[in-house]
Amino acid sequence: MQSEEVLPVCLSPSVMAQKTVLVTGCSSGIGLALAVKMATDEQKRFKVYATMRNLAKKDNLIEAAGGTLGNTLEVKQLDVCSEESIRMCISSIPDRRIDILVSNAGIGLIGPIECQTIEEMQKVMDTNFFGLVRLLKEVLPDMKKRKSGHIVIISSVMGIQGILFNDVYAASKFAVEGFCESLAIQALKFKLHLTLVEPGPVVTEFEKKVFEDGMKMDLSAADEETADMFVNIYLKNYKQIFQTLGQAAEDIAEIILAENPPFRHQTNSLYAPITTLKYADPSGDLPIDTFYKMVFQHNKIFNASLNFIKLLRWRSRKSLDLGESSFQ
Ligand SMILES: NC(=O)c1ccc[n+]([C@@H]2O[C@H](COP(=O)([O-])OP(=O)(O)OC[C@H]3O[C@@H](n4cnc5c(N)ncnc54)[C@H](OP(=O)(O)O)[C@@H]3O)[C@@H](O)[C@H]2O)c1
């Protein structure tokens, strides 16, 4: 994304007072990139409370944010699975004032459901869905009283369209989307705005953790065909999909800062055809049929398309690099 397309954030230009921002899950990835982007803003428009569940992981963030700690950046402990931790964190913020809340913390889970425990699945729902609910129970009443606030939720394209072997993760993001769709109507009455950010693959720790867990998964509870599908189709293509279609966490951070973001914002235009299928056929058959054919019948074409996209992206990056250097 070109920087000139990006204008100041959720801010009307006339309001120049520093906005208080709270971001969850800032130990790595999108949360870290966003906290750094906002804390290092040249016009110092933000006071960023970058939170993480384990403060022992704060060094990468502090280093990436340069000398902003104690000025535009504060680092605080917040575990979205603990009401007590959320309450303590919010209560430690002056006047409990949060102008922009970014609900980013999340975890993934892949694989056949017969090989996952209910506890593992509950942890995904507890983090990705109830984590957001817990945050809002604490932050929303203050925002309502002030009649101002922006809530940004890092959802996923999987909040719109499920993808093979992501059953529970997609369910957690669908839950987030349904919750926000309902809440947005009430929120508007209080002049509050919600934005669902829906990235496709983003190259972060998430990708590595999920892949490693998938590789280590005990597949003995699955039948041979399902286990083979997971290992030889899903895991085999996993890295290739991230390499080809993946965005950088910094790009997502930049997009979140766009002016007047809509309620739903997909960050990766390469995913638009997939989500469009969903809206094109209310019966739901079209996306399922297309995915089925793409994975099981036309996988060679699918792989060739990925390689083609990879080549196009490489060429466009190369021409951008050349363009940049010609101005130097
Ligand atoms: N990467 C992708 O491809 C992708 C695509 C679409 C959407 N997303 C969404 O983007 C968000 C950020 O993911 P990411 O890609 O930046 O992954 P990441 O690098 O793994 O970051 C996830 C962050 O969430 C934190 N977290 C996990 N459980 C938490 C809890 N109980 N309380 C507080 N923080 C917790 C992690 O902390 P620890 O370091 O302590 O684990 C980490 O800081 C997630 O909601 C994810 O679902 C990611």
From TrEMBL:
List of residues binding NADP(+): 25-53, 79, 173
Gene Ontology cellular component annotations, sorted alphabetically: cytosol
Listed GO MF terms: estradiol 17-beta-dehydrogenase [NAD(P)+] activity
Biological-process GO terms, alphabetical: estrogen biosynthetic process
Matches recorded under Gene3D superfamilies: NAD(P)-binding Rossmann-like Domain
Binding of substrate, residues: S156
Active-site residues, Swiss-Prot/TrEMBL: Y169
Keyword line: Lipid metabolism, Oxidoreductase
Similarity comment text for this entry: Belongs to the short-chain dehydrogenases/reductases (SDR) family.
The name this protein goes by in its record: Retinol dehydrogenase
The species this protein was found in: Varanus komodoensis (Komodo dragon)
High-level lineage: Eukaryota, Metazoa, Chordata, Craniata, Vertebrata
